[in-house]
């Protein structure tokens, strides 16, 4: 592994100039083909999923067929983001049915699942227990308290932290401290004002690590979980 490891943005919604490697999240309701490769040296990968916000935007059977086809592309490293959200009007039962389909797809194609969860962890954790997935689940944009982080970690989840690490006193800063480095990722999500390097620098300060050590640990996680090295 190189001494100077890259910044990896594990979940983003736009091209990141300072991320040598990134996973760009695409919603299947908005695409029919993958974007073209930016350059031969660009390490841009994709995750494709049905976001709970967009469940009613198109026919789910059509979306499933397109997603299944696109997920076979080697640039697609994960299914998602998909999950459960109690802050929207779509009934939780319908969200759960769609999410279960995404879980099944991730298992079928052997790729990790990037999870969106808002105020629905009491439903998410039993779903994971009953599904008993072989593929990793990565809870993106984690903003919860340490007790919730411990619960998710105990059930085998990976946690990805983002912009709220930059907010003094935010509970996710304490949650980061109890997250094992081998279960950690960092992201920009939909933020257009922050760079991934800012989030890495703040995470390194919270953890008491030098930035190069943190970068190398996350590269190792990325290779193990997404590239299966």
> Helix proportion of residues, in percent?
25-40%
CATH class: Alpha Beta
Would you tell me the structural class of the helices and strands? alpha/beta
Strand content: 15-25%
The H-and-E topology, N to C, reads as: EEEHEHEHEHEHEHH
Rounded mean pLDDT score: 92
Report, as a whole number of angstroms, the end-to-end distance.
12 Å
- Which oligomeric state applies? single chain
Using the CA coordinates, give the radius of gyration.
17 Å
Mind summarizing the main beta sheet?
A: 8 strands, parallel
Instruction: Point out poorly predicted stretches.
Output: none
Brief summary:
The protein has 229 residues and is α/β, with parallel strands linked by helices. The protein has seven helices and eight strands.
Q: What does this 3D model show about the protein?
A:
This protein has helices spanning 60-70, 92-109, 121-131, 146-154, 171-177, 196-207, 211-225; strands at residues 8-12, 21-27, 43-49, 76-85, 113-118, 137-139, 158-161, 184-186. The chain has an eight-stranded parallel beta sheet with strand order 1-2-3-4-5-6-7-8. The protein has a single domain (8-225), classed as Alpha-Beta Barrel (TIM Barrel), CATH 3.20.20.140. The longest helix has 18 residues, at 92-109. Helix content is 36%, strand content 20%. It has 229 residues and is α/β, with parallel strands linked by helices. The two termini are 12 Å apart.
């Amino acid at each position: 592994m190189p001494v100077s490891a890259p910044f990896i943005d594990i979940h983003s919604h736009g091209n990141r100039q300072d991320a040598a490697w990134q996973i760009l999240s695409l919603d299947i309701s908005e695409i029919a083909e993958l974007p073209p490769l930016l350059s031969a040296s660009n390490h841009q990968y994709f995750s494709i999923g049905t976001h709970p916000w967009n469940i009613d935007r198109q026919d789910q059977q059509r979306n499933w067929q397109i997603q299944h086809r696109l997920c076979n592309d080697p640039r697609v490293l994960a299914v998602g983001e998909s999950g459960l959200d109690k802050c929207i009007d779509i009934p939780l039962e319908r969200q759960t049915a769609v999410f279960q389909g995404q879980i099944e797809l991730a298992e079928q194609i052997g790729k990790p699942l990037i999870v969106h969860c808002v105020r629905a962890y009491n439903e998410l954790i039993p779903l994971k227990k009953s599904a008993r997935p072989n593929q990793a689940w990565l809870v993106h944009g984690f903003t919860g308290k340490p007790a919730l982080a411990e619960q998710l970690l105990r059930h085998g989840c990976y946690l990805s932290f983002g912009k709220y690490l930059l907010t003094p006193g935010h509970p996710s800063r304490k949650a980061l401290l109890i997250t094992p480095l081998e279960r950690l990722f960092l992201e920009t999500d939909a933020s257009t004002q922050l760079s991934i390097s800012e989030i890495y620098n703040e995470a390194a300060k919270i953890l008491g690590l030098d930035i190069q050590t943190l970068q190398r640990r996350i590269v190792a996680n990325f290779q193990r979980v997404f590239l299966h090295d």
